Amino acid sequence: MNRGLPPSLRDAIILIPVLILDAAIVIAAYAAALALRFDGDVPGDSIRFFAQVAPGIAGAYVVGNFCFRIYRTSWKYAGIVDAFNLAVSIGVVSVFLFAVNAFLNPRHIPLTVNVVAPALMLIAMGAVKFWPRLWATRNPFGGYDASGVKKVLIVGAGHTGQLLARELRQHPFWQYKPIGFVDDDRRLRGVRIHGVTVLGDRYEIPEICARRQVELVALAIPSAGGAAVREIVGIVQSAGMPLRTVPGMRELVHSDAETARLREVTADDLLGRAQVEIDAEMCAAAIRGKSVLITGAAGFIASEIARQVFAFGPSVLHLADTNETGLYDLQRDIEPDEADTRLRIWLCDVADVAQVDGMFRQTRPDIVFHAAAYKHIPVMEDFPDAALRVNVVGTLNVCAAAAEHGVTKVVFVSTDKAVNPDNVYGATKRIGELLVTASGEGNSTTFAAVRFGNVMGSRGSVVPLFLRQIERGGPVLITHRDATRYFMSVDEAASLVIQAASFAEQGQVFILDMGDKIRIADMAEKLIRLKGLEPGREIRIVYTGLRSGEKLHEELAGAGEKLLPTHHAKISRIENRPAVSRAELVAKINELANAAPRNREELAARLQALARLDLRDTGAATPADVDRA
User: Fold this and answer.
1) Contacts of 339 (CB under 8 A, 6+ apart)
2) What angle do CA 422, 491, 521 make, to 5 degrees?
3) Which one of 293, 453, 519, 561 has the minimum C-beta count within 10 Å?
4) Three-state DSSP class for 258?
5) First CA to last CA across the chain, in angstroms?
6) CA–CA gap between residue 340 and residue 109 (Å, rounded)
7) Which residues pair with 196 in a beta bridge?
8) Can you state the angle between helices 324-334 and 300-311, rounded to 10 degrees?
9) For range 558-584, the mean pLDDT
């Protein structure tokens, strides 16, 4: 009916009944206080005086509520702070009226009325305003369909846990009935939160589930680390209970997720890495208004770097790859209909020096993120010539073009496989690090490298591979029962690469904090159980042995590499840089590329020797290795 009115007028009309109700409560409270003061026999002079000043008194309290934004409060979700604000509003106006009444002569309204009336007013007005909240919790365990309700045990009685319990109680249509908490803080044992009792700690979950006939366990500890999450998952799985978790803060902020919308535990939850915080202002200052080029942009990690770089507002973002479909999809994914940043895609093979030079001549980038590479270890063992062409010669071409065309900064995306490399892929990435650190000699372009381990969900990562094998009914293939790996999420990796780029200086090699190593076999078993299956019985686990070039345990830093802190707690840098001249390194790369051995084993050996060129003076590389390089 009021849709055609201006919003401010429409809001005012909606507020009129509320103001009238508050004014009526004020007048009724003062009338009741007068009656109490005179034991029901109020003098006529007091009645006549009160009738004259009642509108003013009511108006004063209404104005006070306006000043304290009482009418801007959503009382359906009101809490202690909102009740306190209402009390302050009533108290301030009451003190003012008490002071005015104290100077009146004759005084027809006793001072005690100015004390009793506000108390009555607070009770009545509070009850009216909190009614929506009281109505929502009028019957915390009512409304459940007995045939479909699930008894839920909540792990974690902290802030998220109590929010979950309250949401489940207020929304019975979700058919989750909280029957208790478990929390490791022994001070909370027996405490009731929203009518739900803390029954014990995490180690008592199996016994509580059996005793209370629990049907679902909900994990509500978003701050828990990966080790804690994996332990809790193991305990819940040993009890044979299905496990769900609350959405993370990122999901709540960036989607329509709600606290009580429980979801399955994922591999990212098992990883349990805290959301990384970067210095957004420093990153924006380094990227905003600049021309940025990303090679290998259609790849898993580089595409996330592209999305995050785009958010910092470069003047133009260039995406280069040989994957035409991947580039097209990425462009459609990150480019909005209207944006200040221009985005261009380039079909460019980094191993083709003419294509690289032509692209740099046209783009004139200020910053380059070089992520183009072949990366699958077994494939590179079979095709070392492709690894040499793309990973080594491609990096050489990018570095040379960047120096020639006046690029401000080049950031090379490296890997933990470059540390003491035992495979072709790692060797080529180590050569890339040597090349990047040596390319700054006598050059105005800043060259730096960022090294990190496995990214969860990337192509070739074990987690999506395990999930596909589980979906097919097994078996799950694991190389070695004791194999361990580092993992991090793709958004964390991309954020830290950009952060490192923001403060990188000439020739620096950065290492990202990957957290604790994770045993691959443990990860596989938990993923199987998360699907409600039993490892070894319903899903077989087969150990295949380490593939060619694979390590049992990955390393982030070599034995002779000393790590120093940087501007960010999760980024370290290597103090001792490789001592290889650019001229010598480029000459050896060109020599190998122009006369590469046809024999795979010999080419792989030459790449391994070239990767250790900086170790010749330390005795770590043999003379024969250096001669082959």
Assistant:
1) none
2) 50
3) 519
4) coil
5) 84
6) 67
7) 193
8) 30
9) 84
